[in-house]
Amino acid sequence: MPDKVMIVTGASRGIGAAVALLAARRGYAVCVNYRQRRDAADAVVAAIQAEGGRAVAMAGDVADEAQVVRLFQAVDRELGRVDALVNNAGVLDTQMRLEDMDAARVSRILATNVVGALVCCREAVRRMAPRHGGRGGAIVNVSSMAARLGSPGEYIDYAASKGALDTLTIGLSKEVAADGIRVNAVRPGAIYTEMHASGGEPGRVDRVAGSIPMQRGGTPQEVANVVMWFVSDEASYTTGSFIDVSGGR
Ligand code: NAD
């Protein structure tokens, strides 16, 4: 039987790279999507291949609809029909109060975190739904605890984008449940990745660690484990659900 196929967006580093590595270990042929860092995506693919797994690095900015369409077409050709999509690509910008934000910044955040995820979901459903010749599938959205906490004084725009992603998860899960497509989301808390540098504070996780009930930040692997549970058959009756991976935060 051919490998199942998974697309992980923004998989050249951080949580996405951890998901790609774990998925390959679980037998998925993985599309390691990246926006700019071809070298980093190639390194993830090499690590997967070194363990005997199957992966391909594929460029595509999820904020650009035409590039998303081309990405999914490339997966059709090179890996086969997609079984699982992990909407992991996400961005945030410099920490600031809302009163200092301009619309261009907010639009940039929404273009990747909301519109990008939505268009990727659309392309996935067009392949997974039986009426399109598909065989069902699983979608996992990488949201954030920010959706619930609101990120005051840091990035309310980012938090709002993750709130929208949560609502997308609820709506789409109901819309495609009868098609055999499950849609769930993880809400990571403070995870050690390079994302915090984009906010202007690379050491942010250590700063907030003391306020986390478990008294530490999380690792990309700890998030990847939960993503892979949602994708697995063990979660066969679970859709429209959320798991906080936040050390109790
Ligand atoms: P990261 O910055 O290391 O990874 C994000 C990846 O997405 C990068 O590789 C980036 O190049 C890619 N990306 C960004 N915009 C893209 C686009 N338009 N098209 C394609 N790829 C794009 O950060 P991370 O922490 O690994 O983030 C992964 C996800 O986890 C994000 O959605 C983020 O919001 C979420 N998250 C992270 C944390 C945390 O504390 N690190 C907490 C909650 C949620």
TrEMBL record:
What molecular function does GO assign, one term? Answer: oxidoreductase activity, acting on CH-OH group of donors
Q: Where is the Ketoreductase domain?
A: 4-184
UniProt keywords (A-Z) are:
Oxidoreductase
Q: What is its EC number?
A: 1.-.-.-
The record's CDD domains line, in alphabetical order, gives:
SDR_c
Matching entries from Pfam families are given as:
adh_short_C2
User: Which positions make up the signal peptide?
Assistant: none
Q: Which family does it belong to?
A: Belongs to the short-chain dehydrogenases/reductases (SDR) family.
- Database matches in NCBIfam families: PRK06123.1
- Provide the protein name: Short chain dehydrogenase
